[in-house]
Amino acid sequence: MLAVEDPATGQRITTVPDCGPAEVDKAVRAAAAASPAWRAADRRAALMSCAVVVEEAAPVLAPVLTEEQGKPLREAKAEFAGAAARFRSFAGSPGPRAAGDGPVAAITPWNFPVQLAAAMLASAFAAGNTVVLKPSPRTPLTTLHLGRMLAEVLPPGVLTVLTGQDPLGELLVAHPGIRKVDFTGSAGTGKLVAAASTSAWRRLKLELGGNDPAIVLPGTDPAAIAERLFWSAFANCGQIGVAVERVYAVGPVYDGVVEALAAMATEVVVGDGRTPGTQIGPVNNRPRYDRVTGLTDEARASGARLVSGGPLDGPGYFFAPAILAEAHDGMRVVTEEQFGPVLPVVRCSTVDEAVGLANATAPGLCGSVWGADEEYAAEVAARLVCGTVRVNEHRAASADEPFAGSRWSASRAELRE
Ligand code: NAD
């Protein structure tokens, strides 16, 4: 069995099945057997039923999501709402008429287990694919419960959730019955998945890590952007692929930006996600907590100034939002994805310098430019090399927007036979 941990206490909540090759084989065979009938089925009705299941499950399962992931209950509920909306959106769209050639292996990370799974399931089902879904071993519980509920409104074999520790994902991707892989996770794992999928000639979709830059232009009023910029970096405790991970502030605006972000950081309520009023929960797991702590310590040792935040006393993995001033591109906290509650702010003399540094990393998920003159900000934004660039905001307002990273952040390579 696989233990599931509560990041707010460090205690075990329960255990879930630790699946291996036999369960993978059984699930993939069932998915393959269900494919012909599923391709011919009224999948719009099924997608609508899935939306209803997710909505009805939310009051019971959102607290479970908070318990295993750490996010505030309000955000866990919002995740369910987003997941239901995704099923509804696919149920209502004309969708592709061409039948899918599943089974699809759908593999999710631990930051948005429900929403990311729903995005994979809704698109796969709409296209006529059956799915074997494997959640992260850090957050298997909510997905397992929800998968069982969804399976009740779907024909047998159309959806199986397999929980377990690595190398379960590797086993699933390697199974000869898998026709397509839909993967969201880190760039490192994405490379392994790509290699395994390519050698087996599978279709592949990857949504990988980012290290999103935000450029603050000279003349910007820090007070006018601080709240939006702060939450673009620290929502979900900074554990978002499309979070702002590094700020480049140009010219005299620098000190004001650091101050305004630090003021926000000291005001927000960090605590147990179950406690009403909590705005930022714990980091999801011990390795991530150690990485964020290590990157912060390393940056301080190289001259960065910790203006606010840092690790809090246990027993859970609490870390108050950290603003690191005088950070620079010689530090790993700037050049690598931290995926946690720390934000380095880099001082730049010119906009050209900021653009050059923003473009100088391997990931290219999203970016943003912040300034009072939106036309000029849009000109600067056009020079950022990433999947999506926004002005005076960072994260998409709607799940219906097209979304794809560039460079190491994503690949929608469709490997067709
Ligand atoms: P991860 O790469 O460690 O794991 C992701 C999933 O892959 C897990 O389910 C894991 O068990 C599984 N896995 C591990 N090894 C595998 C293998 N060899 N073959 C197949 N599956 C395998 O990532 P994580 O730590 O769970 O999540 C954090 C990462 O996800 C961050 O880099 C973040 O940026 C990224 N992410 C990206 C987006 C996006 O939209 N681009 C969204 C959310 C998260």
Question: What report would you give on this structure?
Answer:
Helix 2 packs antiparallel against helix 4. The chain has helices spanning 21-40, 43-69, 73-92, 113-126, 141-152, 168-174, 187-199, 222-234, 253-267, 286-301, 332-335, 351-358, 374-381, and strands at residues 2-6, 11-16, 104-107, 131-134, 159-161, 180-184, 203-207, 212-216, 244-250, 305-311, 319-327, 342-348, 363-364, 366-370, 388-391, 406-407, 410-411. The chain has 2 domains: 2-208, Aldehyde Dehydrogenase, Chain A, domain 1; 212-391, Aldehyde Dehydrogenase, Chain A, domain 2 (3-Layer(aba) Sandwich). The chain is built from 13 helices and 17 strands. The strands form 4 sheets. A 7-stranded mixed beta sheet has the order 10-11-12-9-8-14-15, with helices on both faces. A 6-stranded mixed beta sheet has the order 5-4-3-6-7-17, sandwiched between helices. Helix content is 42%, strand content 20%. It starts with a strand and ends in a 6-residue tail after the last strand. Strand 4 (131-134), helix 5 and strand 5 form a beta-alpha-beta unit. The structure holds nicotinamide-adenine-dinucleotide (NAD). The site of nicotinamide-adenine-dinucleotide has 28 residues, from helix 6 and helix 7. Nicotinamide-adenine-dinucleotide binds at residues 107-111, 134, 136-137, 166, 169-170, 173, 184-186, 189, 192-193, 207-210, 241, 337, 339, 365, 405, 410.
